[in-house]
Design goal:
With about 300 residues, the protein is of the alpha+beta class. The strands form three sheets. The protein has a six-stranded mixed β-sheet, with helices on one face. Strands 8-9-2-1-10 form a five-stranded antiparallel β-sheet, with helices on both faces. Strand 8 and strand 9 form a beta hairpin. Helix 1 packs across helix 2.
Length: about 300
């Protein structure tokens, strides 16, 4: 099933639901960064969350950054997701592996750490980006992002994300976000009903593994609550906007002395994009041209 995002409403517009399938893009990230099982699960969950958060942004070019920094061995996680359905991300220590947790599942919480912070930056393309910071509640990613939505955006939200990865790679990844909007938030029975239904889910990836589509999952969850599935299906993909020209621009900012040192000691320069793992090589001649450009700018 292709990576995709589907939106729905229920309760006469009082409930907003968004679902994403991110299996292929999570597998691509796993391959690019050579991720361990637990690192794959952590990054895949965070990328799904980034796409779910970005889905509410209307302006073209809008993006969401999620940065997670816990005390666990995985280090930090950084994800950049756009309203256009693109996402990229990385973890600080991709090779970290841990034994399963007490439930026999990948110990994402242990890898991330239970103490730390979640940082969210929303950039709508003009003015100053909106940023917010909350403490981690579990390190399991989904709980932490749901906590952010409730505490920073005051929106009652249920969030379920998951990644299933084995010896053959990622076979299921995605997530579901259900929010009670202000017009319906005063209906406590509606909120409780929704919370109990989401809590009853056995997880998100098991539904994908048995062949459930996003509309079918919405139907099971909200079918008796005036469900309307919006017709537009948005395709999702792993995409990084890095380029050789951007690398040259970054190298140029190092200044003439540093560039000359690279020429003399390394006969060139090598740079790796953190987000996608692509390696760029700059020759001594290209570095020399950067030096000439810097000198020309001073004339």
């Amino acid at each position: 099933m292709a990576d995709q995002l589907v939106r729905a409403t229920a309760a006469e517009g009082g409930i907003r639901a968004v679902g994403v399938i991110t299996t292929r893009l999570t597998e691509e990230a796993r391959g690019r960064h050579k991720l361990s099982y637990v690192a794959t699960a952590a990054l895949g969950r965070t990328m799904s969350c980034g796409l779910l958060l970005a889905s509410s942004m209307k302006r073209e070019g809008s993006r969401v950054n999620i940065r997670i920094k816990g005390e666990g061995p995985l280090g930090g996680i950084l994800v950049d997701a756009g309203a256009d359905g693109t996402v990229r991300g990385y973890v600080d220590n991709p090779a970290v592996e841990l034994p399963p947790n007490v439930r026999g599942k990948l110990d994402v919480g242990g890898a991330v750490g239970h103490d730390g912070y979640l940082y969210v930056v929303r950039d709508v393309g003009y003015g100053y980006p909106y940023s917010s910071t909350v403490e981690l509640v579990s390190g399991e990613i989904g709980d932490d992002v749901a906590h952010y939505l409730v505490s920073s955006e005051q929106t009652p939200s249920a969030l379920v994300v998951g990644v299933f990865v084995g010896a053959e790679g990622v076979t299921a990844s995605g997530g579901l976000l259900v929010q009670v909007l202000p017009k319906a938030a005063r209906d406590e029975s509606l909120v409780q009903k929704l919370e109990s239904r989401v809590a009853a889910l056995s997880g998100f990836t098991p539904l994908l593994q048995v062949g459930k589509t996003l509309p079918e999952i919405f139907e099971e969850l909200l079918g008796d609550m005036g469900l309307t599935i919006l017709p537009e299906v948005q395709m999702l993909r792993f995409h990084c906007g890095c380029s050789f020209n951007r690398v040259l621009g970054a190298l140029k900012m190092l200044g003439e002395a540093e560039l000359q040192d690279m020429i003399e000691k390394d006969n060139g320069a090598e740079a790796t994009c953190h987000f996608c793992g692509k390696v760029y090589q700059a020759s001594r001649d290209e570095l020399a041209q950067l030096i000439e450009d810097l000198r020309a700018e001073l004339v």
